[in-house]
Sequence to fold (270 residues):
Amino acid sequence: MYKLIALDMDGTLLRTDQTIHPDTLRDLRAAAEHGVQVAYCSGRALSELRPYFSLLPMMRWAVCYSGAMVYDCREERAVFHAPIPQPLVAEILDAARDYGAMPELLREAESIVSGADLDHIRDFHLEAFLSLFRKTARQSNDLLAEGRQYRDLLKLNLFFRTISDRQEIRKRLDALPLEFVELYDTALELNARGVTKGTGLTKLAEILGISMGETLGIGDSGNDREMFRHVGLAVAMGNAEPGIRELCAMTTGDNDHNGVGEAIRKILRI
Fold:
């Protein structure tokens, strides 16, 4: 009944320690052996996904940057991308500077952050991701210059010290042709208008010749909302944020106890 399974990464496919449960690997292999496509559907950049490609060879496709790119992991090429219009980037970064936010610039080739921000990562409530940033992101001393240089920025993340700072910058930028997703307590994701996990997954389904009624999405957080609205069956993780479960037809176990595999075995009956 379902030919394509879309999986969020953080809080879904990954355990709290950023590893994948061995039983989840077993269940993903079983799904692939039954002819079901299993794809990443993540806000992460390619540089943040690549370390998992060799561990998950059954997952050929990645909807990444919250829908701004569809990537063929086997052939190592993008088959779709939707960057943020370059003139908007400087305006976003100016606002980020005014509110003391930590920006992350995401391109196909790399993610870029400020080294000074990483030195104060706790101020932005991102201690759990410090190792990931240091391993996968390039550090720059001038993000505004970086933003003006590139026309292929697929996504911008802004991390704040307080919720009120995020609310204020959201008001300032709200008129721009962008998609906004509030994530965690003090984070804000920005994509080009009309770009979401849902639209990226729809593009992948078109490429594969699969109807959206034949898709299954599993996730846990705010940037999964649009994915849930597009898929044939939406499944919330047991650790999902408040308000997410109400969007889904069913809830599975949490990310530390193979909630993904539990859902796959139940729904596909394997």
